[in-house]
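Methods: example folding runs. The two proteins below were folded one after another, and each record is reproduced exactly as written to the output file, sequence line first and structure-token line second.
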Amino acid sequence: MLLELPESVEGNGPTLVTLVEVGQILEAAKHEPPLSLAEIGRRMEAKRVRHSTLRASVDFFARLGFVTVGSKGVLWTHTRDARFWAAARRGVSLLREA
């Protein structure tokens, strides 16, 4: 099932406010190198955020396909580009259209 709590969630998990803030930080940094969880925590308005809360938030976005998690950190990979989604629906590579 798509909307299950990730295994990294402890207790009730992150609040909606935390999820939105983490998502905004990652989306704003989409042209930067991958962000570590520590860097995401530093950029948050709340100065004390538990590592497990950040991990659960990132895992949630990864499950929805908004971010990619790698050994160097987290990167926002979701796109709203209409050209991309039109090409994806047709099964056409954007590289050939350029």
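Second run, written to the same file directly after the first:
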Amino acid sequence: MTNLIFPHIEPLGDGAVLVRFGKKLDESANKKAIRFADILKEYSLPGVSEIASGLVSVLVRYDGCKVGYFELAGELRLALCSLIEGGPEYVGKTHDI
């Protein structure tokens, strides 16, 4: 786990993803993890069954029959934009036309 760029998205088996905001506990990484978990809970990402924040990471459990890892990782990258001031507010929302 050396030379990782944070936040870092990594698969945990075939049904979970871990989003890391740091290697060790610090206030900034902790606040980002908590805020990111809150952001994800506001959106209904397809196939996601659980969102749990840790000290410097967020665990996202998902149903692999409903969403694949790469699709979910893309949605998580978009949601990470919400942590940046002025990030898109439409992340994770769908609009029927």
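Comment on the second run: The first strand starts at residue 8 and ends at 12.
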